[in-house]
Amino acid sequence: MEHTDELYDISGEKLELLLDMPTHGEPHYAAAMEADLVKERSQKIYNLEENKHPYAAFSDSDAKVVRKGNEVHIYMTTIRSHFTPDNIEGIKLGDKVFFHVTNLEQDFDVPHGFAVLGQNTSELLVMPGQTKTSVWEPTKVGVWPFYCTDFCSALHQEMQGYIRVSPKNSDVPLKWSMGEDIE
């Protein structure tokens, strides 16, 4: 769950909010310092060019699904209201699936979450401009949803997609799409 860090100047008669930003929350801790230590270095825009993750996808056209033996790498992007790709099939039992999720947002206050039932790692919180990786090993044949776990906009509930898992010996090819049925 995302929380908010707030930095206040308490030197005057009235509190003054200097900075408000999303952060990983732990409500039991608080720290105080002079605002000058952080205010000038706070970042409001995150440039995608600074993302050095080896599996980053910098636009929807970079989104793809690649098989390497029983490993499947999904290069996924996210931006308010959708994941790309959002329909994936050709995953098989026995595959180890790597979701490499890049948040294409660049404004500081639009993180996105990512989760799929049974993933081997905790849900992801992907801050603007970042790429993070989650690992999933499907245990049953079927259609599995993935979704955004961090409220990001009025269209947050639209941020979902599906993965079809086939039996291990299936010959279903890898296919993916955005916002349309796979034929």
Explained architecture:
The chain is mainly beta and 183 residues long. The protein folds into two domains: 2-41, no CATH class; 50-177, Cupredoxins -  blue copper proteins (Immunoglobulin-like, Sandwich). The protein is built from no helices and 13 strands. The strands form three sheets. It has a six-stranded mixed beta sheet with strand order 9-8-11-12-6-13, with no helix packed on it. Strands 3, 4, 5, 7 and 10 form a five-stranded mixed beta sheet that branches. Strand 1 (2-9) and strand 2 form a beta hairpin.
SSE blueprint and pairings:
Elements: E1 2-9, E2 16-24, E3 64-68, E4 71-79, E5 82-84, E6 87-92, E7 96-103, E8 112-116, E9 124-126, E10 131-136, E11 142-147, E12 160-166, E13 175-177
Parallel strand pairs: 4-7, 6-12
Antiparallel strand pairs: 1-2, 3-4, 4-5, 6-13, 7-10, 8-9, 8-11, 11-12
Principal-axes shape call: elongated
User: Radius of gyration, rounded?
Assistant: 19 Å
Task: Please work out how many helical segments DSSP would assign.
Answer: 0
Average residue pLDDT: 85
Would you identify the CATH H-level superfamily of the largest domain?
Cupredoxins -  blue copper proteins
Distance between the termini: 36 Å
Please supply descriptive tags for the structure shown above.
183 residues, mainly beta, Immunoglobulin-like, 5-stranded mixed beta sheet, 13 strands
Can you describe this structure in just a few lines?
The chain contains no helices and 13 strands. It has strands at residues 2-9, 16-24, 64-68, 71-79, 82-84, 87-92, 96-103, 112-116, 124-126, 131-136, 142-147, 160-166, 175-177.
